[in-house]
Amino acid sequence: MDRSADPTLDSNSRRIGGAIHDNLGELGADFMLGEIFDPKAELFINDRLRPHWSQAGAIVFVTFRTKDSIPREVLQRWDREKNDWLDRRELRNGTFWKEALGTLDEETRAEFDRHFNRLREVFLDSCRGACVLKQPRLSKIVADSLLHFDGDRYQMGDFVIMPNHVHLLAAFASEDAMEKQFDSWLHYTARQINKVIGKSGHFWQQEPFDHLVRSPKQYEYLRKYIADNPKKAKLRPGEFHYHQRPN
Fold it and tell me: The pTM is what?
């Protein structure tokens, strides 16, 4: 597609593939909140700090975290480890790991993601940073925001608000709606939380992690992951906010 013919695409965005879905009324089977990622359908990719894939109507698993949840030195160490992981398999060819990801086959990319996503999730569950979302009045600000336009701008699935991060499942009617809604959630909740705690500036890390759901089995796995996350992190009642989408 010619980007100049589509004013919704900026210089970091591109579309791949064919037809898209027009509205939330086409979001698939009753037992799921949306559709499974279709590799043959049109795909919207926004390359910012990391690639964000979105597809009209497809279910996406999203993680966003507080700015202080992972120290810079840990992120830098993970960068080195990602480069090393690719070097051991002779897959990087001198480039930075982010540039090399696009050259990996599906199986290798999945292995890479599993390994480093696990590192990130274990670290987040260790509750680094101020972890202010343990406070029910603050986690409620986030929960209310996530549900505010449910059924209108998006379909919200299960979510859990942990002390320093959030996991959620959602589906969006158009490709760019996902990115716009991420920005809306992060800016609004940061402003409201900062008012309560008497601070200013960034509250969230600005680019969430997102993953398009590939199968019904993966969808159910992620629902269970969300539900079990507080127990795995050894949180007590009142230190997290869990929402289960009604069936």
Answer: 0.78
pLDDT in tens, 163-206: 999 999 999 887 678 888 999 999 999 999 999 999 999 999 97
Q: What is the pLDDT of residues 77-131, one digit of tens each?
A: 999 999 999 999 999 988 999 889 888 998 998 899 889 989 999 999 999 999 9
**Would you call 44 helix, strand, or coil by DSSP?**
strand
Count, residues in the chain? 247
Strand order in the sheet with 51-54: 13-16, 43-47, 51-54
Per the listing, tokens 């700090």 go with 49
Q: Which residues of 164-199 are buried (b: 16+ CB within 10 A; e: fewer)?
A: bbbbbbbbbbbbbbbbebbeebbeebbeebeeeeee
Q: What element of type H or E holds 61? A: strand 59-65
Gap between the terminal Cα atoms of the chain: 38
Measured between alpha carbons, how far is 87 from 100 in angstroms, rounded to an integer?
10
Q: Rounded to whole angstroms, how far apart are CA atoms 206 and 67?
A: 8
Alpha-carbon distance of 243 to 137, in angstroms, equals 15
Residue tagged 């480093």 (tokens): 116
